[in-house]
Structure formats: C-alpha cells, structure tokens
Specification:
Belongs to the class-I pyridoxal-phosphate-dependent aminotransferase family. Keywords: Aminotransferase, Pyridoxal phosphate, Transferase. It comes from Oppiella nova. Helix 5 packs across helix 6. The radius of gyration is 21 Å and the shape is globular. Helices cover 28% and strands 16% of the residues. The protein has an eight-stranded mixed beta sheet with strand order 1-8-7-6-5-2-3-4, with helices on both faces. The chain has 278 residues and is α/β, with parallel strands linked by helices. The chain has eight helices and eight strands. It has a domain of 184 residues: 3-Layer(aba) Sandwich (Aspartate Aminotransferase, domain 2). Bound molecules: pyridoxal-5'-phosphate. The site of pyridoxal-5'-phosphate has 13 residues, from helix 5.
Length: 278
C-alpha cells in the first residue's frame, strides 16, 4: 500500500528561516556594522574597533603583493576554476612560507580557504558531530561560538588568566575535557588579549592535549605580530605527537584582510587524522 503524506499547500508567502540561521549570531559584526556614533567634541576618540590593519590607511601592503595580483589578473591565466584545495602552485608557496624547523609543510598539507574564518569553519566542521564539544578560550574570539551554532556543537570555555599575561588556566582546561571533546581551539597570539605564549607554556598546554588525546585547532592568524621581546612559536613545531590543524592566512601580517586569503596547515606526523579529514 502506498502511503501518501499530505502536506497542506501554501496559500500565501511564508518563507521559513531555519532554526540554525536564527541561532547564528556574530556579535562583532552586529556591533561594528550598525555602529553610529556622535563623537563627543570634548574628548578624543579612541577607536576600539575590529582587527582591520587597513582602517587608518597608514599601513599598506608591500608592492610585491599588489604587483603580483596585477600581473596575475592581467595574464588571464588564473581566471578559471582551481582544485577545491587551491592550485598546486599556491599551495606550494604557502608550504614553503610556513615550513619551520620541527614542522615541515608540503603542498599536500595545505588547504586554501576564504580567509582564516573559513579555515576555522572547515576545521570545526570536519572534526565534530552533533553532541561533540569543543573547547575555546575565554576571553576569546567570538567567531568560534558563531560557527559552533551551525554544527550543533557544544562550546565549553577554558579560562585565560589575566594576572599571568592571559596564559591558559591548564587545570581548568584539563577539567573540561571529556570523551566527547572533538578539539581544543587555541589562539596565539591572542585576540582579544594581545598575549603571546612562551615556548614553555605552549609545551605545558600540549601536555594536557596529549593526556586526553585531543587534536588542536590552532588559530595562528596573528603569527609573528608580537611585542618586542616576545617570540611567536608555531604550536606544531613543538609537538610531534599531537595532530594540529593550524589556521592562518595573509589577513593581518600582510595587511590585506579584504582579499580573504586563508589556509589550513595539516600537521599530522602519525596520520592520526587518517585520510578522512581532508
Ligand atoms: C583571532 C582571529 N581569528 C580569525 C580571524 C579571522 O580572520 P580572517 O579575516 O582571515 O577570516 C580573526 C579576525 O579578526 C581573528 O581576530
């Protein structure tokens, strides 16, 4: 017997907005894009806006970058479709740029994305199922929570310690991990704290991830942007055991956020991700 499901036909417009769309909020964009301020003439304005290094026009990208884009578009050779992960040449260039002692990168380990936001989106999506949880820093970049709503993943915060230069509270982190923890999101240098982790602190953090066998999604978009006296250590260069997806791009360091050029570097010396992740 054929079962026919009767649905009432619509008689007027009533477009449904998904529950996911309704629960997806980007608090930074909500504030910044609707901000209308009457400056107080008595006081100088201190702009505390988003991390866009081009806003004041005093920091310009170097000529090599702009010339390369002009040459590329004028060559008419790069206007077609590329492989989903990016052209071999571009992946090779990122691999060459990103390889460091202890964390070599080959073109096959590079996935090109639309900005670091897209890199984070892909990493969170590929490592989670509904019911998984992901650990994120507090204070932290709000996009992690925005993205989690789309994939039905529980966000758990681990605390950063203001009196210790915003280092990670490793005991707190340790206590929040369980068998459903799909990944720890780690952000260094940090937005919004401006902190840069020492080599030792990164090693101590890695020990917690290792104890629980949890992979790391490293948001390293601010790589090398450190105050004098600090040094940026790519986290993957300090572990050979823990699989790391490092998210980065040209946004901040190369002063071109609008170009939306990001990447994922897959560091997985023991193939713990298998061949299913990317
Ligand atoms: C910590 C952090 N991660 C990721 C991003 C997103 O970078 P993109 O503009 O390349 O998507 C930002 C942008 O401000 C950021 O501050």
């Amino acid at each position: 017997m054929e079962l026919k499901r009767e649905t009432k036909r619509r008689t007027e417009w009533s477009v449904i907005v998904s529950e996911k769309a309704k629960s997806t909020v980007n608090p930074i964009r909500m504030v910044v894009e609707t901000l209308k301020l009457e400056p107080n003439p008595e006081k100088p304005l201190i702009p505390l806006s988003i991390g866009d290094p081009t806003i004041f026009g005093n920091l310009k990208p170097c000529e090599e970058i702009t010339n390369a884009i002009i040459a590329s578009t004028q060559s008419y050779k790069n206007n077609g479709y590329f492989a989903a992960a990016g052209s071999e040449e571009a992946r090779q260039a990122v691999a060459l740029y990103s390889s460091v002692d202890g964390a070599p990168v080959e073109a096959k380990d590079v996935i090109l994305t639309s900005g670091c936001s897209h890199a984070l989106d892909l990493c969170m999506t590929v490592l989670t199922n509904p019911g998984s949880n992901i650990l994120v820093p507090r204070p932290g970049f709000s996009l992690y929570e925005t993205l989690s709503a789309l994939i039905d993943v529980q966000i758990r915060h681990y605390e950063l310690l203001p009196h210790k230069n915003w280092e990670i509270d490793l005991n707190d982190l340790d206590s929040k991990i369980d068998g459903n923890t799909a990944a720890i999101i780690y952000n260094n240098p940090s937005n919004p704290c401006g902190s840069v982790f020492s080599r030792q602190h990164i090693i101590d953090f890695l020990a917690v991830a290792q104890k629980h066998f949890v992979p790391i999604i490293a948001d390293e978009i601010y790589e090398d942007l450190v105050f004098p006296g600090n040094h940026f250590y790519p986290i993957a260069s300090l572990t050979s055991e823990i699989p790391v997806l490092s998210c980065g791009g040209t946004t901040k360091k190369f002063l071109i956020p609008g170009w939306r050029m990001g990447w994922i570097l897959i560091h997985d010396k023991h193939s713990r991700f298998g061949n299913q992740v990317f």
